[in-house]
Structures are given as structure tokens and as C-alpha cells.
Design brief:
The structure is a single chain. The chain contains 17 helices and 15 strands. The protein has 431 residues and is α/β, with parallel strands linked by helices. It has 2 domains: 229 residues, Type I PLP-dependent aspartate aminotransferase-like (Major domain) (Aspartate Aminotransferase, domain 2, 3-Layer(aba) Sandwich); 134 residues, Alpha-Beta Complex (Aspartate Aminotransferase, domain 1), CATH 3.90.1150.10.
Length: 431
């Protein structure tokens, strides 16, 4: 008979590994590890985190619930949670040279929703980059909550150069008189003129939100202009080029706006903060404060430019003629193939990317006419310019054969080359 002091919990609950307790789930996770290790990941919204970030995000902070902010929690036992959030906040402020950071948003989209909650009323006008032109779903796209709640107008890019036309933005701003202007994109490869956006926002008495999710790592590494001095508020994710745990942040220099965002997030948008994700954020923010990360950020841009140059040299169109960031957009219309067919065939060759709309695309969003490609993961693995030149050539070879109608043999040969390159640059210790 068990002691009255004991429960029915077996010690294995605390000590047994996943492999010991749930072989089915463990096999799925191991399969994903093998996929990441043996394929070249080119998706712009992905990266590889450090072992330290994995350790932090899988820590005992998974067990703790908090609501509110440090020193003002709704639950007891929050001393270490307060220390964690203060550490993450301090690191974010130092990294991006801003006065205030809110590290609680579960995602970049929730960070954006928080800004809307704080600054707008339903029906207010927003001016943002159109989704089909490279913008983001949460910037007022019709299917998104932001597009349903607000009156949204969109700017785009020039048909000839694929770049934002600031004169068009000015005309649209003066015509629509938005309450909020959003700068930032999910598929725009060029530096955005944040100062010009702020001048336009001031002209029409609008707030300026910059969503820097895709360029946050470049800004942190000092290889891309920072939006912080120009924007009323900056939102970001903490993965992608920042190479950290999945989640979002809100950054501002304005004391009053910081307070408004805090209350808009909690209790306005979300409840408990995910402390295990916050621990992962704190770990990656600490990494991003190092000189090694600055070297990584610089390599991101050089490697993406190498990739763009190689693809263009094989007679494929790269939107805007190249890139200033870690991503590029390939327009496949001149070759008569779709983004879906191209991404499917490249995955067979071990090259994982995503189909993506290109400016003025007539294809269905589930098909598209383009590919979005990034240097983020490969650079994390240690690939240099020579490797990215090879990758660009392999992409072109597979797509050339797809145009011809059959890429099976090329896919098989490319898959072998990909496996050899991946073996030279292993990631985590494999099970």
C-alpha cells in the first residue's frame, strides 16, 4: 500500500525521455530532424536556432503561468519569471537601441494586432503594401482580421523596377488620409526608406508602424538601416533572420505608446505570456548582441546576393534585379512554369523553398508565378559564397529541366550533391 504522503505519479513522469514514453511522437520529431539535416532550407521565414535556444525554450518555464507584467503579476511565484522578462526586455532594448520593448507577443501577427488595438478603432484607415506586391497578411489583407476590421488601401511596386515608389505612397496617403501607415513586407528584397515613410506619415498626421520581421537580424547586425529612429512603433518576429525562438516583439521610444501597447496586449489581445518562448527569445537576443552575430548578418546579405547573381546568370528573372537583404524573389513567368510546380520539383532535389506571388501576378495564390528564396538557414549552417553559387546553379538546372518537361534525372543528381554539401555542414547531433 502506498504511503498517505505519496500520489499515483510514477517517478518516470519526471525522468523518462520522450523516446521511452512515446515512440510514435519521437519518431516524427526525429524524422523532422533528419529532414532539416539532409535538405537545404531556403524558406525566408525559417532558420536554425542554437542548442542554447532549444534548451531555453524547452526549459521548466514551460510549467509557469503568468499574466501581467514584472512586478504586477496576477499569479504568485513569479520572481524568476519577472527576472526572465526583464532580461529579455533589456537585451531587446540594447540590441535595437530603443527605450522600450514588449517581449510578450506570441507572434509577429499578434504584435501587429496589438498596435491596431492601441491606436485604431474599427473602420479606421490603414495604408500598407499589398499582399500580392510583397506585403504581409496581417497588414490589412482582405482575408485577415486586419482587412475585415479596417478600411485598407494598398501601395505596391513599380512594374519596371519592382521597387516601392515613394511618390505613389505620398499620393495615396494624401488621398486616403490613413490613421496608420505600415512599412514592411514579407517578400520585398530592397531597403525601405523609413525616413521618407515618416515624412509622409507626418504630412497626413498618421502613425507609422514598421514591421521589420524579415530584416530584424540585419538591423541587429548593423547591415541594414534601423527603422527605430523613424517609426512611432516597430514590430518584429524573433526568428527568421534574427535566428531565435518563434514569437514577436513591440519596440518604441515613446513612453506613452509603450504603456498603451502594454495594456492593448494584456488584457486586450492575449492572456498568459509564454515564458518558455520568452526564454528562447532572451537566449537569441543575447546571441545577437555578439560580434559573431554581426558577422552572420553581413554574410546573410552577401550570400543572398551571390544566390541572386547566379540565378540571374542562368536567364531567370529576379524581382528588382537583386537584393539588399537576405531574401530574393524569382519571377518564373518568362519561363512558363508556376511557383507551385517549381517548389514541388525543387523539394524532390533536396532544395526546400516556397512558392510566392510576384508583383502583378495573375496566378491563383495557391499556385503563384514565383519563388521566395533566402540565405538565412544555409548561412547559419556555415555555407559561404561558393556554396551559394552552387545552390543557385542547382536551382537553375532543376528549373531548366522542368521547363523542358522532365527533371527527374536532374533532381536525382542534384539530391546527391545536396546530401554531400549537407554532410559537410551538419547541424544538431542526430539520434
Amino acid at each position: 500500500m502506498s504511503s498517505p504522503r505519496s500520489s499515483h505519479t510514477d517517478r518516470s513522469f519526471f525522468d523518462a525521455s520522450l523516446a521511452e514514453t512515446d515512440a510514435e511522437l519521437a519518431a516524427i520529431i526525429d524524422g523532422e530532424l533528419h529532414r532539416q539535416a539532409d535538405q537545404i532550407e531556403l524558406i525566408a521565414s525559417e532558420n536554425l536556432v542554437s542548442r542554447a535556444v532549444l534548451d531555453a525554450q524547452g526549459s521548466v518555464f514551460t510549467n509557469k503561468t503568468v499574466e501581467g507584467y514584472p512586478g504586477r503579476r496576477y499569479y504568485g511565484g513569479s520572481g524568476w519569471a519577472d527576472a526572465l522578462e526583464r532580461l529579455a526586455t533589456d537585451r531587446a532594448c540594447r540590441l535595437f537601441a530603443c527605450r522600450h520593448a514588449n517581449v510578450q507577443p506570441h507572434s509577429g501577427s499578434q504584435a501587429n494586432q496589438t498596435v491596431y488595438q492601441a491606436l485604431l478603432a474599427p473602420g479606421d484607415r490603414i495604408l500598407s503594401m499589398g499582399l500580392a506586391m510583397g506585403g504581409h497578411l496581417s497588414h490589412g489583407a482582405p482575408p485577415n482580421q486586419s482587412g475585415r476590421l479596417f478600411d485598407v488601401a494598398h501601395y505596391g511596386v513599380g512594374r519596371q523596377d519592382g521597387r516601392i515608389d515613394m511618390n505613389e505612397v505620398m499620393v495615396l496617403a494624401q488621398s486616403h488620409r490613413p490613421r496608420l501607415i505600415i512599412a514592411g513586407a514579407s517578400a520585398y528584397p530592397r531597403i525601405i526608406d523609413f525616413a521618407a515613410f515618416r515624412r509622409i506619415a507626418d504630412t497626413v498626421d498618421a502613425w507609422l508602424l514598421v514591421d521589420m520581421a524579415h530584416i530584424a537580424g540585419l538591423v541587429a547586425g548593423g547591415v541594414h538601416p534601423s527603422p527605430i529612429p523613424h517609426a512611432h512603433v516597430t514590430t518584429t518576429t524573433t526568428y527568421k533572420s534574427l535566428r531565435g525562438a518563434r514569437g514577436g516583439m513591440i519596440l518604441t521610444d515613446d513612453d506613452d505608446l509603450h504603456r498603451r501597447f502594454a495594456s492593448a496586449l494584456f488584457p486586450g489581445i492575449q492572456g498568459s505570456a509564454m515564458l518558455h518562448a520568452m526564454a528562447g527569445k532572451a537566449a537569441c537576443l543575447g546571441e545577437a548582441l555578439t560580434s559573431e552575430f554581426a558577422d552572420y548578418a553581413a554574410a546573410l546579405v552577401v550570400n543572398a546576393q551571390t544566390l541572386a547573381e547566379e540565378i540571374q546568370s542562368r536567364d531567370f528573372v529576379v524581382v528588382s534585379g537583386g537584393t539588399d537583404t537576405s531574401l530574393l524573389l524569382v519571377d518564373l513567368r518568362s519561363r512558363g512554369i508556376t511557383g507551385k510546380s517549381a517548389s514541388d520539383r525543387l523539394e524532390l532535389a533536396g532544395l526546400t523553398c516556397n512558392k510566392n506571388a510576384v508583383p502583378f501576378d495573375n496566378e491563383n495564390p495557391t499556385v503563384t508565378s514565383g519563388l521566395r528564396i533566402s540565405s538565412a538557414v544555409g548561412t547559419t549552417r556555415g555555407f559561404g559564397q561558393a556554396a551559394f553559387a552552387d545552390i543557385g546553379r542547382w536551382i537553375a538546372e532543376v528549373l531548366d529541366e522542368l521547363v523542358a518537361g522532365d527533371a527527374v534525372d536532374v533532381c536525382r543528381a542534384t539530391r546527391e550533391k545536396v546530401s554531400r554539401l549537407c554532410a559537410e555542414f551538419p547541424i544538431y547531433t542526430r539520434s
